[in-house]
Each structure stands twice: as C-alpha cells, then as structure tokens.
Amino acid sequence: MDRPILEHVLVQLQNALERDDLQGAANIIEAMRPADQADLFAELDEEQQVALLPEMAAGDSADILEELDDEQVAELVAALTTDDIIRIVEEMEPDEAADLLGDISPEQAEAVLRGLEDPDEVRPLLIHPDESAGGLMTTEFLALRRRMTAGEAIEAIRRWQPSEETIYYLFVVDQHGRLSGVANLRQLIVAQPTTLIMDIMDSEVLAVQAGTDQEEAAQILARYDLLALPVVDASRVLLGVITVDDVLDVLEDEATEDIQRMGGAEPLERSYLDTPPAIITRKRIGWLLLLFVGGTLTGSVMRLFEAQLQAVVALAVFIPLLIGTGGNAGSQTIATIIRSLATKDIEPSDAFWVWWHEARVGILLGLGMAVAAFVRAITWDPNPALAVSVSVSILALVFWATSVGSLLPLAAARFGVDPALVSGPLMSTLVDATGLFIYFTIAGIILGL
Amino acid sequence: MDRPILEHVLVQLQNALERDDLQGAANIIEAMRPADQADLFAELDEEQQVALLPEMAAGDSADILEELDDEQVAELVAALTTDDIIRIVEEMEPDEAADLLGDISPEQAEAVLRGLEDPDEVRPLLIHPDESAGGLMTTEFLALRRRMTAGEAIEAIRRWQPSEETIYYLFVVDQHGRLSGVANLRQLIVAQPTTLIMDIMDSEVLAVQAGTDQEEAAQILARYDLLALPVVDASRVLLGVITVDDVLDVLEDEATEDIQRMGGAEPLERSYLDTPPAIITRKRIGWLLLLFVGGTLTGSVMRLFEAQLQAVVALAVFIPLLIGTGGNAGSQTIATIIRSLATKDIEPSDAFWVWWHEARVGILLGLGMAVAAFVRAITWDPNPALAVSVSVSILALVFWATSVGSLLPLAAARFGVDPALVSGPLMSTLVDATGLFIYFTIAGIILGL
Predict the structure, then answer these.
(1) Taking CB atoms and an 8 Å limit, are A273 and B350 in contact across chains?
(2) Which chain A residues are closer than 8 Å to B153 by Cβ?
(3) Would A3-127 and A272-447 be classified into the same CATH topology?
(4) Which of A354, A368, B163, B313 has its Cα between 20 and 30 A from that of B395?
C-alpha cells in the first residue's frame, strides 16, 4: 500500500485508540492485508499494541506477529496472558508458531504448548535451530501414498482444506513415511480418477536434510525454480516442507546481512528507524574500534619512515590519494567476489583461478592509474623522481589491493567465516598499512632516501 | 548438484565431444535438471556449445538458453540457423522468448517470429522494456470468465494443459478482458461443480501496470507472499502474469547489482570467471579514475596546510588513521541506509528523521572513538595539545561521516539515482577530503599554528 494511504489509515487508527475504541481500531486493522496490517501495527507504541492484540480476530493477530521481527514479537508476547497467546498461536502456521515459542521463556512456551489443540504439529519443530532447513519448514503438509488413486487424493485434499502455500506440490511417501515422489495438483485433476499416484508422480524429487543451513536450502529452491522443497531426516523420512514465500524472506535477509556486514556493522534485528541509536551504536562500535586498532598500524608505518617524511614533506601530500586508490580497488574486487560466493558462482576451492583473474585485472587497472598518477604528480610538483615514485607505487598498490581483495573473502569462506565480515573496512585497513609500507619503500629507493 | 558430481559428468561429456559423438553428449545433458544442464553447458567452449544446441531436444535447448546470461545467449543464437532458433524458441515461455528476440538482430528476430506457430503470444511482449513488469511477465495464462462454473473452469484447465508455473492462481476477467478477481486451483476443486466463478473468486486482487519497474513488482509479490502477480494496462485489461520464480531471479540480480555498485564497480553481465579481465577492468576503471580525481582533493587540502605540516610533522602520522575511521563510520551508515531503502524500510521523504537518527549515533560513536584516539595519541607522542586535537577531530569526523553517509544515498534516491552508486568509495573520497580539512582546521586552532 502506498505511504499516503497508510498514513491516512494510521490517523483513523490513532483516533479510534484515543477514544479508547479498541474494537473500532481492531476493525480498521482487520480490513487490510497482512503485510499492511503489520506496517500499521508497527507504528503504534507498545502499550497500544499489547491492548490491541487480544481484541483482534486471532487469525489477524497471528498474521501480524508472523510479519514482525522476532525481538519485537518476544516483547509483545511476554505482556499477553497465556490464554490470549494460545488463541493466537492456534491460528499460526506450525513453523511460525515454533519460531515464536523459541523466542519466549521456556516456561511460558511449555504452558502455551499444553493449551494447544494439536501440540504435536509444533513440538517437533522446536528441536531444529532457527537458521536450519528444519527451522524454516512447516509440518502442515499432506503426504499422499503411492497406491492412492488420483480420485482418492483429490477427495483427501477436499477434506483436508489446507492453507494456500502448502497445496501446490503434493509429496508422496511409502509405508515407512519415506519420501518417494512428488505430484502437483494439476497432474491430479488432469489424470483419470482411477490412476494410481505412483503412475503420476515424479520420483526424481529434490530434498534437503533438516540440519541443512537455511540459506543453502533457499538457494536450492531458487536455483531449481521450485515452489516447495521437502525436508527429510537421515533415512529420508518426510518431516516437513519449505515453501517459496519463506525462501523469499530468507534470501532478502541474507542479502541485507551481507550488505550491512560489508559496511562493517553487525546486522540490525529490527527495522532501521525502530532501532534506538544506542543499539545501532553498539552494533557498530566494536568494529570501529577494532578497525581503529588495525588502523594504528598505519601510524606505526608512518613513524617508521618519519625521517624520510621530514626530508621530503611533499611525500605526505600523496598519502591519502594513494591509500584511497588502493582501498577503492580492493573494494571493487571484494564486492564482486563476495557476491559471486553468495550466488555460488565461485567456490573457495577456485581460489587460484580467482586470484589469477584478479591479478590480471589488477595489472591492467594499475597501469591505467599509474599514468593518471604520474600526470597529476608532475603538475603538482615538478619533481620527476617523486612523480615516478608515486606512479610506480600506485601500480604496486592496485595490484596488491586486488590480490588481497580476492584472497581475503575466499580464505574467510574456506575457514567458515562469513566473507562479508572481512570485506570493505577490514580490507581497507589492511591495505592502508601495507600500502603505506609499499609507498615509502618504493619512494625511498627511487629518491635515494 | 554438488560440484564433484558435476565435474564427473563434465568429464564424460568432454569425452563424448572428443569422440565427435554429439548425440551421446546431448543424451548426457538431457538427463539432468535445467539449472544443472546450464552449468554443465557453460563449461564447454563456444564451438562445442553451438554444435550441441541443435542436437538436443528443443525443450532442453530452450531450458538451457533460459538459464544463461543474455549476452551469452545472443552470441550463441547468432551462430545458429534460423530454423534451429525457431525450433528452440517454440519451446520457450513467451517472456523468455521475447527476451531472447530482444537480444538478437531485428532482422533475425523478425525471421524467427514469422516462423513461430503462435507469434502473437510473443509479439506484444517485445514492446515492453526488459526491466519493466511488462518485460518480466508471461502471456501464457488462463483467464477465467466470471460466469463460468467451477466445473467448466476445471474442464478448461484439463484441455489447456498449462505449464507448471502459471496454474496456481487463475485470474478472472470481465467481458472486456479487465481483471476482476482471482481464484486458486484448490478453491475450484473444493467447490461444487455448478458454483459460479464470481462466487468463488476474491475480487480484491493486487495488480501492477506494465510500465512498473520490475524491482517494484518483485517487492510487491514478495511483500504479500504471492505466487503470481497480474500485469494490467491503464484500463485494467489483463496483459500477463509475473510468477514467483522470475521474481526470485530479479531480487537476486538487484542485490548483486547493489553489492557490486557499493564496491564501486559496474555490475558484470555474466558470471565472474567467464568475464575476461579486460571487461572487468573496463567496468572498474571509470569509477577508479573518477574517485582518483576526487581523491586529488585530499592532495589539495594537504598542500593548503603544508606550512602547518612542515611545522608539526607529527600531524601527518595521524592522517591515515583519522580519515580511515571517518571512512569506516560512513561505510557503516551508508550500508544500513542503502539496504533499508532497497527493502522499503525507509523512503527518501524520511530524510530528516534518518539524519536525526544517525546524528545521535554519530555523537555516541564519536565520543567512544575520541577516548580511544586520545589514549593512542598520548602514548605515541606525549604532547597533550596534539592528542586533544586528534581526539576532537575524530569526534567531529565521525559525526560528519555518519551525516554524509545518511544523507548522500537519500539524496541520490530522491533524484532517481541508484543509491548504491554513491556509496562506499564515493562517500569515502568525499569524507577523506573534508575530513582532512576538519582535522587541519581543528589542529590549527588548538595547536595555535
């Protein structure tokens, strides 16, 4: 929904709340789509939110909680009565219910579970870590048997009345519950009613194990253009299904995480303007201090060459330009490498080829920059030896920066560290200090200092 | 598929090709899933690819071409005969066929169109720009009429035999072809066969106009957890349907573009290792030179303050550390802001609130860094006035960097420029020069130079 409309509705909503007309406020929210409901709801202060949640239809409250950030949900739910929570959780998809229960106190979670009509739909999901395929899947699926007919299957679907997301693929299991095929609704309705499922189904079905990282599961679903991906245990028993709408969220979140880490900040848990400055500061200060400590290396290098700097103060003029160019060349490389790793375009084992690729790019870029730097230096200071020093240094620096920029994220990935963590700022800091060393060494030789 | 398996199959494939056994090679590829077929195919050299394409079943060739990058497809197709192209295009989804025809010469495209069985499915798609909702949609959809019964609709689906992606939502139109509702397959099979579609359908259906940017369409589909989004013209006549699998690709590509631009490089058109170093260099050198020119500003600032630098060479020791910290603080901010803009968490009109948020973060971060900088400076050089200069400068610099980092991408978005373009390197270059100015000015006052 467009922002002006949203703001208009928000005013109505605030008016209703000021009149203490909770039912009226609930009606306003209930008339909207879940994503808009959540946006509107997020604009209210916490007191209003807590008052409103029990007033709305449980299905709407459930939809809203499914859209909000985990941290916010935990705070809200802690302020509700157990009965209200049960009423709302009852309306949630099992995977979302499990996420919610994982975020509240174990005692409260246990009390809610005891109150649910069908706790066994949710309980098994609690053992899977949030970030795994098992944590992402829903247990609300219909498994067909191989010896059912198409007619029987359609009858089962009629009786089952499933929610929208889980109907498009129908997974087929054998008598031990092991995944043995997949069919889709269209195949069922096109088939003769007496045809056996095993004659319709496609037995080449992709699945992931419950412990698989959710990002990997998401990549598989995206790569093979699936609408749902079955999750199995070690003996291929069907445990649940990951649907494409959950995968869209995972891929967006992972890209957000990468981009924020590349900027040198820990990802935020909730939306930007809702995160207080103190929390944002906490997410950033650690990195900034660490980089500062790394950056003091540049000071040490400067002090090492202080005598040369005293002799030729003009050397200092080119320092920011040189280390800036090195940092920029490294940033270009690292951004390309990190994204190629994320989309599985390259793998850590390709390190040598990636480096060889970047090395050639680095030499080409370095030659171009060397010409530009020579021209700039000679027009600033008509000292050819200084200009040659700057020019040779920039060539060496760009080559060095592209090498560091290509190998650093690959090394991180190899050791299981998120490559985005070692990117941008960390790389610049490293290239700054080593770049200065390269510059002073080359200048020292050429200028005979 | 795992890389070791892929490499094993690749060896078999290369063996077949060396024996000139094109049919054998085609069989090996045909046995795989489309995404894997494309990976395998991409490992062959162009000559082998051109030889193999006409040998494979047209459906498999079509699947492979749909997965490859546009530029690669254009090169391959230019080497095929028109008859072969027609045979392959015939098997493509209309949206993919239109993309392909848009990438080859207009004469060749016209010849192919003339040879198609149903050119009218593809021709209207050619007028929509690649990056718009109209360019992303497929025209292969089944529109139901409001006065059909559920039974008639199912019969229509049986006769139609649609491809998998387009069946899950069935859009309903009035007698003028205007979108009036949506139903899903499950609703049809659950309903009594004599029920009218207009009594089943949901008339609140989200749609986008054909000219909408594809990223915006993708965000709407993702936000409302849809599997398909209808595309309409100005009078709400249904033109086509965007499916979730295409949206996944768009969102991935947009994140890739953002990340590469944040690193200061134009996005690559094909996969990393397939892009020759000369092309990568071309994508980067423009930015690097532009930033170099911007970076020479730092040199000008240095020259402006050369007398002070002569007087206190120790000032130079802190330059890389100070501008590095400013750049890091700015990077942290800009990464958060760009991503929040991309996920519609904030909008350009929120500029003041975002700046106010960052200003507070900047002061908190700046105070923390000021303490660290004072401690570091005083242990390096027991000159309290110098340490205070460095400490005050870093506070001012961090505050300044967070302000620039928050306002720069918002201003870009306001003027319709991709915020990722002004991020990372451009921001650092700007903060470098202004940061030096701040440092020398503050130091000049405190040290009385």
Answers:
(1) yes
(2) none
(3) no
(4) B313
**Nearest CA-CA partner of B220 in A3, A5, A1, A63:** A1
Percent helix, percent strand, percent coil in chain A, to nearest 5: 70, 10, 25
Residue A108, min C-alpha distance to chain B (Å): 30
Q: Please, which residues 396-415 of chain B have a Cβ atom closer than 8 Å to chain A?
A: 398
Condensed to tens digits (0 to 9), the pLDDT of residues A407-437 reads: 999 998 888 888 877 776 778 888 888 999 9
* Residue B94 near residue B122 (C-beta atoms within 8 A): yes
Task: Give, in order, the Cα–Cα distances in Å from B277 to each of A331, A354, A359, B427.
Answer: 17, 11, 9, 26
Least Cα separation, residue A337 to chain B (angstroms): 8
Cα–Cα distances in angstroms (integers) from residue A77 to residues A21, A88, A332, in the given order: 22, 10, 44
| HEC letters along B428-441 | HHHHHHHHHHHHHH
Inter-chain CB proximity A288 and B263 less than 8 Å: no
Euclidean distance between CA atoms A80 and A51, whole angstroms: 9
pLDDT band at B320 (very low <50, low <70, confident <90, very high): confident
Asked if the ipTM is above 0.90, the reply is no
CATH architecture of the domain formed by B3-127: Alpha Horseshoe (1.25)
The domain ranges of chain B are 3-127, 143-251, 272-447
Q: Is A256 on the interface with B (CB under 8 A)?
A: yes
Question: What global pTM score does this model have?
Answer: 0.76
List all residues of chain A from 52 to 111 with a beta carbon under 8 Å from chain B: none
- Classified by CATH at the fold level, domain A143-251 comes out as CBS-domain (3.10.580)
**Paired sense of beta strands A208-209 and A179-184, if any:** unpaired
